[in-house]
């Protein structure tokens, strides 16, 4: 499996370190995602996250410190190299996106107990669409878009099994999906504002 990496395309008010292993001594603040996960340490994505102040902090007391940091333990979805693991900044500057073996978690860094566990499982690819203000999650058959206010849209079915994003240009996404009835790869274009298919 490819080593997890940081992808910081969106402005963000946090810093994160991907740990190679779970610390022997846990920090005072530590959170497990999802909370009900069993044997979560096995292959989990371990992150040390530090919230950072806004650019116009009223005082030095708002500066980040070790006491603000927390350990985020994100349960592994699938131990398979075709599914991603890593960390992405999101359209909301205080939100971090962690993906562990195709399981995607959107975590509020100022209130780490608040998080969303995406229903799309597994996520096969993540694409930041910065100009559109969206983080795009690609599944086997459709695409889910996450914006600053949360879920923006979910596309209609784009493929019977597996799809590829070929480019993102302005407010349009171009890709290819496989059609079971024709046994052919079929191109498609999505409007990033609405998530609707562009008709020819």
What keywords describe this structure?
single chain; 200 residues; mainly beta; 5-stranded mixed β-sheet; 4-stranded mixed β-sheet; 16 strands; 44% strand; globular
Can you put this structure into words, describing what you see?
The structure is a single chain. This protein is mainly β and 200 residues long. The chain has 2 domains: 1-122, no CATH class; 124-200, Beta Barrel (Thrombin, subunit H), CATH 2.40.10. It has no helices and 16 strands. 0% of the residues lie in helices and 44% in strands. It has a 5-stranded mixed β-sheet, with no helix packed on it.
Supply the number of structural domains: 2
Question: Would you tell me the overall average pLDDT?
Answer: 90
Helix content: under 10%
What is the multimeric organization of the chains shown? single chain
Order of strands, widest sheet: 1-6-7-8-9
Overall geometric form: globular
State the end-to-end distance. Answer: 39 Å
How much β-strand is present in the residues?
35-45%
Number of DSSP strand runs: 16
Poorly predicted segments: 56-61
A few lines on this structure:
By secondary structure, the protein is mainly β.
SSE blueprint:
Elements: E1 5-7, E2 14-19, E3 30-33, E4 45-51, E5 70-74, E6 86-89, E7 95-100, E8 103-108, E9 115-117, E10 125-129, E11 134-138, E12 143-147, E13 150-154, E14 163-169, E15 172-179, E16 184-191
Parallel strand pairs: 1-6, 3-5
Antiparallel strand pairs: 2-4, 4-5, 6-7, 7-8, 8-9, 10-11, 11-12, 12-13, 14-15, 15-16
């Amino acid at each position: 499996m490819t080593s997890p990496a940081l992808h910081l395309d969106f402005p963000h008010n946090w810093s994160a370190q991907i740990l190679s292993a779970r610390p022997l001594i846990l920090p005072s603040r530590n959170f497990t995602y999802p909370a009900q996960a069993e044997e979560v340490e096995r292959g989990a994505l371990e992150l040390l996250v530090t919230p950072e102040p806004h650019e116009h902090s009223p005082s030095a007391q708002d500066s980040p410190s070790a006491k603000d940091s927390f350990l985020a333990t994100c349960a592994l979805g699938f131990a398979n190299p075709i599914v991603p693991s890593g960390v992405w900044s999101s359209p909301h500057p205080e939100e971090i996106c962690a993906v562990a073996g195709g399981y995607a978690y959107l975590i509020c860094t100022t209130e780490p107990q608040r998080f969303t566990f995406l229903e799309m499982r597994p996520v096969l690819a993540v694409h930041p669409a910065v100009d559109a203000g969206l983080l795009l999650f690609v599944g086997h058959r459709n695409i889910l878009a996450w914006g600053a206010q949360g879920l923006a849209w979910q596309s209609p079915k784009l493929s019977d099994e597996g799809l590829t994003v070929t480019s993102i240009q302005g407010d349009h996404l171009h890709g290819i999906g496989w059609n079971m009835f024709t046994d052919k790869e079929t191109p498609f274009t999505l409007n990033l504002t609405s998530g609707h298919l562009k008709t020819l």
